[in-house]
Amino acid sequence: MSIESGALQRIQITGEDTAGLLIARLAATVLDLNAQLADLDTRIAERFRSHSDAAVLTSMVGIGDLLGAEFLAATGGSLDAFASADHLAGYAGLAPTPRDSGSRVGNLHRPRRYNRQLQRVFYTSALISIQRSPASRAYYQRKRAEGKRHRQAVLALARRRVNVLWAMLRDQRHYEDPSPALARTA
Q1: I want to staple 108 with a disulfide (CB 3.0 to 4.6 A). Which of 30, 56, 96, 129 is the partner?
Q2: pLDDT score for 107
Q3: Which of the two residues, 183 and 101, has the higher pLDDT score?
Q4: What is the spatial distance between Cα 93 and Cα 113, in angstroms, rounded to a whole number?
Q5: What was the pLDDT predicted at 181?
Q6: Which residues, at least 6 apart from 68, have a Cβ–Cβ distance to it below 8 Å?
Q7: C-alpha 112, offset from chain centre
Q8: pLDDT tens digit sequence for 111-166
């Protein structure tokens, strides 16, 4: 048997043509869904940029158009419903609540009821800022050096970012990265 005769042999599986057609249709559906998602992301970004706080929100490292839009959706478009940054952090599930009983003191846990969408915004922006901001990276590394696990350190950074974002929106000021100031003092 020569190599040429082996190359000519072909095994046909029953239903192969039907499976190929089905895979082609599914691939076309996935490509169409990706195009629809890209269009939706563009529309959300355009709508977000028309909000009065969009420039302030996106000036903070780690918050882009989509996370900013998600923040506005979770907070109702303004911070009027929140009395303080602590209240916003509690709503986002980033402020531990006490579970003290009798002689047990200092027993803190995450609240059972919180806005998971808002927590995701702050957690995701904290992860991004660790990569892009030296100040955030230094804070994260300091928390890790204190013995906190990765998730705990990121949540601590997210909680800190709540305070910064609250002050930025309250004063209508853009984010100023403290990294250059840290470099000058070092």
Answers
A1: 96
A2: 54
A3: 101
A4: 8
A5: 53
A6: 48, 54, 57, 58
A7: 20
A8: 667 788 999 999 999 999 999 999 999 999 999 999 999 998 999 999 999 999 99
